[in-house]
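Example 3.2
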Amino acid sequence: MTAPRPAPPPVPGGGEAPAVPGAIAGDLATARRPEPWLARRLFPLLATAVLIAIAIASTTWWGPLITGAHSWPLPDDLWATLAGAQRLVHLDIAGLYAPSTGLVSFPGADLILVPVVAVMDAAGISLQVPGVHHPHPAAWLVAGPYAIALSAVALFAADAIAERLGATRPQRALLAAASATALWCASVEWGHPEDAVAVGLLLYGILALSQARTGRSAWLVGAAVAVQPLVLVALPILLVIIEPRRLAGFLARAAAPSVVLLGAAAAANWSATIHAVTNQPNWPTVDHPTPWTSLAPRLGHGAVAAGPGRILAIVVACGCAIIVGQRWRAVRGAPWSAETLEEVLWWTAAVLALRSVFESVMVAYYMWPVLAVALIAAVRSWPRLVATSAAAVTITFVSQVSWRGPWAWWAPMVAGLGLTLFLARLPQRRRTSRAA
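Structure, written as C-alpha cells:
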C-alpha cells in the first residue's frame, strides 16, 4: 500500500495550486541553469582567434608577399618590452628602465610578458631584435599570439559590459568585430598589449563598481594603472561616483600595485626610474608632432617630454568629473542602472580622448582606448553602434598614414575622435510624468 501523496499548497483566493508536469519542470530547471562561459563569451573568443590567425598570416606570409620584403613586418615596440620582461625573468630590476628597454610606463607593462619570456628562455628561443640579419625571428611565433591573446582582455571586458547593459547577441557580435578591428592597431601594428590590458582591467573595474563592488573595483583599477598609467585620466570620473566614506580605501587599494612595482624599480635604480616615469620622453621626428610639441620641454637627442601634457589632460578630466558628478549622487553605493553605466562609459571615453588632445607627440595607437570604450557606450542602439563602428574602423586605418607637420595628422585624428564620441553619445532622456 503506497503512502498518500501530499496535498498541493493552497493558492491565494482558495483552491489548489495546479500541478506542474514533469517535462515543464525540467524545462524550467534547464532555463534557470547558467549559460556556460564559453557560450557567453563566444564572440570575443571568435574575434580573438581570428585576430591571431590574421596577424600571424599577414606578418609571415601576406605582408612579405605583397610588399616583396625579405623580412617579416613586425611591431618594433614589442621587442623592447620583451627585453624588459627578460630582465625581470633574470631578476635584473636595476636594468628595467635602461635605455635599451625604452620603458617609460610602469613596470606592469613588462610584468605581463614575463610568462611568455620565461617559456622562450627555457626553450632557447632568441629575443634578438628583427632586422636584416634576423629577418624571421621565431620569437614572434610565440610572443605574437601571446601578446594578442593578452590584449583580448579588452574584448572580453567589453562583452561582459554589453551583456550587463542588455545588448542583444547580434549587437554583441558587431561590438566584438569592430573592437577587434580597432585593437589591431595597438596589439598587432604597434605591439603594445599593455595598453589593451590596462583598458580591459579598467573596464572590469567599472563593471564591478556598477555592481556596488567598490573594493574589487579598486584592485582592478589599481592593476590597470600599474600596467599602463594612461588610465589615470579616467580615475576622476570614477571617484565622483563613489561614496565619500569609501574614497580613502578605494585610493589606497588602487595605489598599492603601482607603489609596490615602482618602489622596487626605484630602489634598484632611482635615477633611471624617476627620469623615465616623470619625463616620459617621446620623439617628434619619429612619431607625429602636434601643436603642443613646441611647448614641451626639450630632453636632448631630439626628444621632448610628454609628461606635462598628460598632467594637463588629468587636470581637465578632473574638471569634467566635477561637472558631471552632481547628477550621479543618487547612485553612490548602489547598483547602477543600464543608463548610468552607459553614461559613465561615455564620459570615460571622453576623458580618455583628452590624452590625444594635449599630447606633445602622437602615435596612432594612442587613440585606441577612446574607440574601444566609445563602442561599448553605443552598443544598445543599432544606429549608434553601426555609426560608431564605422567611425572607429575608419580612424584605425586612416591613422596609419605618415602625414607630417604639427597640424596635418593631429587635427584630423582629434576631429575623428570627436565625431566618434558624438556618434556614441547618449540619447536624450524622455521626459515622463513618473519619478525616476
